[in-house]
Amino acid sequence: MTPQPRTDAPWGDPAAARKLAGSVRGPVLAAGDDGYDEERVRYQTFRPHAPSVVIGAVDEEDVRLAVEFGAAHGLPVGVQATGHGPALPAHGGVLISTRRMSGVRIDPVSRTALLDAGVSWQQVVTAAAPHGLAPLSGSAPHVGAVAYTLGGGLGLLARRYGYAADHVRRIRAVTTDGRVRDIDADRESDLFWALRGGRDNFGVVTSMEVGLVPVERLYGGALYFDGSLAEEAVNTWLRWTAGVPEDMTSSLALVPLPDVPALPPPLRGRYVVHVRISFLGEAAEGERLIAPLRALGPRLADTVRVLPYTESGSIHNDPVPPAAYTGTNAMLSGLDEDRVHQILAMTGPGAPVNSIVELRHLGGALGRAPRPANSVGNRDAAYLLAVLDRVTPDTAGEVAAAHSRLTGALAPLTTGRSLNFLYGSNATPDQVALAYAPDDYRRLRRLKSVWDPQNLLRLNHNIPPDPA
Fold it and tell me: Hey, which bits of 394-457 come out as E strands?
């Protein structure tokens, strides 16, 4: 029988760790060492990874040695850069921190960017802008570009250009046999298909080449309304999305905002409707398109304007400080007024848990498979609903129950899950499976059996090997 990796248990072999530290260029840290907590705890602070060993990789060889070390000792291996989307936390095992691998190289002729494993989207946006180009980045510029892309990547230009994973040209990754591989449509094509949508289940990516798009600016920003308009706003937005062109990517969030000085006075301590606009057409056409949204009522704030893509992070204005949170999502075939009323009753100010609820409009290029194909699933969904809550150990059970009730109520309209919006205890293998078409998931499991039969790469949104 093939030995299985150790899981959920501390492990320590000081001699082996010292030997590893003598081989890699970056730090090798264990619990109690100076810098251990800084290395393992990144953006997500709720139940962070607690590995036996964390390696702060500075280059590809460090990654290779870390994977080789985990395999030699039967230890599960995880990887993180910014730590925005960890799934089940690692208790024991090897954690590879890639945040020091931060190189970005732009080729304006081929319209591509070569990204090292720890790069954030802000670095790519800044590097591409002087060439009149932009990446398929997400709403939060401080998110790691590689993990985001491997999970699909649903960004600000998505309805026009599709998922970020659709624009990957080639990948370099370390597989669990300790080999560095060049992967593209011609070399290891099955692995190329699996990684683009399967995250870090098949290898630890050290660099990635992605296509850029000719975008310098857009007509975008946010409309904020008082929460008393929530039901009318959601229903109006849903009707509005039915007629907008593919150049319009939008979302709507229902947000209980804290009463803190960092927020503008009109927004502090209020339950608000936050409509996000990202339009690639002319400003005048954008003004015409969003007029029905502006007509909803008085706006607490209106920031929609022509803005350079370098300021695109201001549209969602996602928080930058680390936080403890959990959340889940549902990819939806549609949404009607009765369901909207139910969602508000279950998550709004009068509910046991007053959650952040976000709806993203899908369709357009998101619904078309790229060439070459990848494993990103649920392309037929019309909307993504995501729910998110700050959480403590004392409130975790209550929040999880509230999220379960919401996804249960939405089950008749649900086509599946989005991998990048599954957090914490919601990222179980059965939930991960819902991110893919059934035939694709079976293929992913077969490929997992080929590339990682011991499931060493399991401290993630895990796809287990096929036992057959």
Answer: 414-416
Q: Cα separation of 115 and 113, whole Å?
A: 6
Phi, psi at residue 241, to the nearest 5°? -65, -25
Task: Output the CA torsion sign for 430, 377, 159, 193.
Answer: positive
User: Where are the CATH 3.40.462.20 domain residues in the chain?
Assistant: 217-429
- CATH 3.30.43.10 domain position(s) in the chain: 14-97
Going by C-alpha positions, the residue among 188, 210, 201 that lies closest to residue 138 is: 210
Look up residue 189 and give its two tokens. 């094509």
pTM over 0.85: yes
Dist CA 9 CA 312 (whole Å): 43
Which segments of the chain belong to CATH 3.30.465.10? 104-214+437-451
Sign of torsion over alpha carbons 127, 130, 133, 137: positive
Query: Burial code of 83-109, b = ≥16 C-beta within 10 A, e = fewer?
Result: bbbbbbbbbbbbbbbbbbbeebebeee
- Rounded Cα distance, 147 and 85, in Å: 9
Q: Using CB atoms within 10 A of its CB, is residue 320 exposed (0-12), middle (13-18) or buried (19+)? A: exposed
Tokens of 420: 């990048």
Closest of 61, 332, 39, 341 to residue 206, by C-alpha: 61
Cα–Cα distance list, 113 to 123, 125, 305 (Å): 11, 10, 28
Taking the chain (468 residues) in runs of 10, the rounded mean pLDDT of each run is: 38 74 93 90 86 95 97 93 74 92 98 98 98 97 96 97 98 97 97 97 98 98 98 98 98 95 90 98 98 97 98 95 93 97 96 96 97 97 97 94 96 97 87 97 98 95 92
Q: What's residue 87's pLDDT?
A: 63
Domain 14-97 classification at class level = alpha beta
- Nearest by Cα to 78 from 64, 97, 65, 62: 97
- Do residues 374 and 193 make contact, with C-beta atoms less than 8 angstroms apart? yes
- The answer to whether the beta carbons of residues 163 and 376 sit under 8 Å apart is yes
Measured between alpha carbons, how far is residue 76 from residues 66, 295, 457, 459, 460 in Å?
11, 54, 6, 7, 10
Question: Topology of domain 104-214+437-451, per CATH?
Answer: 3.30.465
Nearest to residue 215, comparing CAs of 157, 297, 146?
157
CA distance 26 to 372: 36
Annotation: CATH topology of 217-429 = Vanillyl-alcohol Oxidase; Chain A, domain 3 (3.40.462)
- Rg of the Cα trace of the chain? 22
